[in-house]
Amino acid sequence: MTDTPSPAKGGAPLRDPAHLHALVVRIFTRLGSSAADAATLADMLIWSHLTGRDGHGVVRVPWYAQMARSGELDPKGQLTVERELPATLLLDANRAAGPIAMVAATDRAVARARTQGGCFAMVRRTTHTGAIGYYALRAAEAGLAALVICSGKPIMAYHGAKVASLPTGPIAIAVPGGPSGPLLLDMATSIASFGRLRQLAARDAEIPEGWALDKDGQPTTRARDGVIPLPLGGPKGSGLALMFEALTGMLSGAPVLVPTLADPDGPGRGSSALIMVMDPAAFGAPEAFADEVEALRAAIKALPRQDGVEDILLPGERSKALMATRLREGVPVPDALMADLAALAG
Predict the structure, then answer these.
(1) Of the N and C termini of the chain, which has fewer Cβ atoms inside 10 Å?
(2) Are 120 and 89 in contact (CB under 8 A)?
(3) 216: how many CB neighbours lie within 10 A of its CB?
(4) From the record, what ranges are coiled-coil (predicted)?
(5) Domain check: are 284 and 306 in the same one?
(6) Does 191 score more than 90 pLDDT?
(7) Domain check: are 47 and 85 in the same one?
């Protein structure tokens, strides 16, 4: 595939993932990141596109560049170990780009889990983490199970509130499998992610009632006006997001919500994340666990389907199929965004 855009049916032109990757690497090396760190960041952004998480793709690059210029993000930032026990790590990201910090933290957690059976790795003072399913899947592809949660600045309404008061509280769970590969659940605790709303806003699309509030805290069905996402399941979604802040920002000593709600115009307080990794070998035979995952997959796929349902999909299955298509055909990126990226790349 060349870097010449391919036409897309009713959407943005399709771009070569390899060209986009090289463009992102160039941008972040210009901003001061090492070539290795820039490639790590590009890997996550392009994976996000390939798996349909376009709101966590290269659309984030101009924002990351702006944060780097303002000092909110340090392109050269690296993890430091603040405290550790045999099965726990407290890591400070020192304002590093979120994907760079999270990949390093995941790899540390995987290595520690191999010797201790499991590891709780806490990451504080990072920046936007991107699609956290990427990190859970990274652990699962190494043969371990993982659960990742994250907290950050408030952009979602707490159930019953009319202002942004919680992050969208993402959670990702991945387990290694057999021949079919890992299972991955990656979701926000909002009905629609903020990135998804912004994608729809760019097309001036309509959204279902109950997805978001406007700037005045009123319900809206216009994506352009939907600036405050609403929680999935009302009090259930907001309750999960609240507890994720307790288990990440507060537990790591870097709370985000209370200081931000008290001083919304104050300095950015970054994000925090918790990466939990478990080695199946600590609980039994890894091969037996993989067989059980395959049996579970087969049992769910064999369930009787409702009328009109062609297939029952497991977590991550749709994204995996989309990846095969987008590797072959390209990923959608609008011309205006490509122009912004080209300008940043110099």
Answers:
(1) C
(2) yes
(3) 11
(4) none
(5) yes
(6) yes
(7) no
158 lies in some domain? yes
Give φ, ψ of 191 to 5 degrees. -60, -45
Phi, psi of 15 (to 5 degrees): -115, 155
Q: Does an H or E element contain 118, and which? A: strand 118-126
CA distance readout (Å), 346 to 105, 199, 241, 336: 31, 26, 39, 16
Residues 44, 106 within the same domain: no
Give the pTM.
0.94
pLDDT at 7 over 80: no
- Find the largest Cα–Cα distance for the chain: 55
Domain of residue 156: give its range: 79-190+231-314
Domain annotation covers residue 6: yes
267 and 345 in one domain? no
Q: Across the strands, what pairs with 119? A: 277
Question: What is the C-alpha to C-alpha distance for residues 300 and 84, in angstroms, rounded to an integer?
Answer: 40
Mean pLDDT across the chain, nearest whole number? 94
Residues 92 and 55 in one domain: no
Q: How many domains does one find in the chain?
A: 2
With beta carbons less than 8 A apart as the criterion, state whether 195 and 154 touch.
no
**The residue to which tokens 């965004």 are assigned:** 337
CA distances from 183 to 171, 297, 321 (A): 14, 9, 13
pLDDT higher than 80, residue 5? no
Amino acid letter, 295: A
Confidence of residue 202 (pLDDT cuts 50, 70, 90): confident
Half-sphere exposure of 142 (CA within 13 A, CB side): 22
Smallest CA-to-CA distance from 23 within 346, 275, 303 is with: 346
Q: What CATH number should be reported for the domain holding residue 292?
A: 3.30.1370.60
Half-sphere exposure of 129 (CA within 13 A, CB side): 34
- In angstroms, the CA 127 to CA 343 distance is 23
Length of the chain: 346
Structure tokens that stand for 330 in this block: 């390209």
